[in-house]
Write a structure and sequence with these properties.
The chain is of the alpha/beta class. The chain is built from eight helices and ten strands. The protein is 35% helix and 20% strand.
Length: 215
Amino acid sequence: MIRIKICCISSIGEGQLAIRHGASALGLVSAMPSGPGPIEESRIAEIARTVPPGVASFLLTSSSNPHEIIDQQRRCGTNTLQLVDEVEPGTHEALKQALPGISIVQVIHVVNESSIRDARTFARSAHALLLESGRPKAEIRELGGTGRVHDWEISRAIVEAVTVPVYLAGGLNAGNVRGAIDAVRPFGGDICSGVRTNGKVDEAKLANFMKEARS
């Protein structure tokens, strides 16, 4: 069964709602140059403490400095790091050494076929990949939460090119998630805006999305 990560969780209540509806992971967004969902690290730590065993708590960080990332994870207490920006060679290894038992998920922003090469490179050291629709080189950098769909053919090529689990993000909703799963065959799906109304998790949208994703 496909794993589903509900991202941009902003409170304990939202997190528990997502878990009740079958979420396998929660995404907790720290400071970003743009995009929805950032919350204070103190709140991330508060939410992470309530996540039960068997559910992953993802800290989304835009830092590319391993020392900063290590300190941030220790403050927040999540069991997974989602690196939303490209990092320098050796960063994953430094994180593994300092944070044993913490999973590392590297975001790949699917732009064109060069993203397949990037995915192969990062898959050698990350525990998993997450395919997003950001624009990291834009004037105002977009590192996730855009609500845009990217080219699923490239995403499928990435899934076939690597041996680590791959999450699919970018514009997913109840209306397209079946097609996305069929086209890409990811390990997991990741959704933020598609289950929200006025920025808050909408239980009806959440239930409908989970039903479609797992049907």
